[in-house]
Amino acid sequence: MKQLDVSAIKDGSVIDHIDSKSTLKVADILNIQNEEQVVLVGMNLTSKFLGKKGIIKIGGKIIDQKEVNKIALIAPDASVNIIKDYEVVKKFKVEVPEIIEGIVKCFNPNCVSNYNNIKAKQHVVNKNPIKLQCHYCERVMSVKDIVLI
Predict the structure, then answer these.
(1) 127 in the Ramachandran plot: left (φ > 0), alpha (ψ -120 to 50) or beta?
(2) Stretch 105-120: mean pLDDT, rounded?
(3) Least C-beta-crowded within 10 Å: which of 15, 34, 53, 65?
(4) CB atoms inside a 10 Å sphere around CB 80
(5) What is the average per-residue pLDDT within 123-141?
(6) At a CB cut-off of 8 Å and minimum separation 6, what does 38 contact?
(7) What is the DSSP string of 4-37?
(8) Domains plus CATH for the chain?
């Protein structure tokens, strides 16, 4: 069987175990626009855990907590590896926080958070599948309703 080798990154982040359908959404969250960065996006790779998975490797970028929180909403089974000098220095599974602030727009057009200068805030009702309840209007959103800010 032929196998494609992917070069290691010296410093950066690897997001693994992404549900294959969500891989490009996760890549979009990471806002990869630096022409100098080495970026690998793999989709529909074989996974014992997910069946099919995605993986994203980004050289020169350490993802921050806000990005991790967004990824957790889109790909709750994902894991993150932080790489320094070709070694994994930190590895963790993404975790959906109990309260989401300033990340998701309320899908209710009449919600006060959509037309006043109020930071959007949701409470997590269910982590997998994701269900969020708006702090202000109390509407419940599922993953299909989520629009990231």
Answers:
(1) alpha
(2) 91
(3) 65
(4) 21
(5) 93
(6) 7, 9, 12, 57, 58, 59, 60
(7) ------SSEEEEEEEEGGGHHHHHHHTT---TTS
(8) 12-93 (3.30.70.140), 99-148 (2.30.30.20)
Two tokens at 117?
A: 């200068």
Q: Which residue has the tokens 């930190």?
A: 90
State the Cα–Cα distance between residues 145 and 23, nearest whole angstrom: 18
Q: Which residues contact 93 (CB under 8 A, 6 or more apart)?
A: 77, 78, 79, 80
pLDDT at 65: 92
Transcribe the chain into DSSP letters.
---------SSEEEEEEEEGGGHHHHHHHTT---TTS-EEEEEEEEETTTEEEEEEEEET----HHHHHHHHHH-TT-EEEEEETTEEEEEEE----SEEESSEE-S-TT-HHHHSS---EEEEEEETTEEEEETTT--EEEGGG-EE-
Distance CA 122, CA 106 (A): 8
User: Which residues is 88 bridged to in the sheet?
Assistant: 83
Measuring CA to CA, which residue among 57, 54, 55, 53 is closest to residue 13? 57
Share of the chain above pLDDT 70, in %: 95
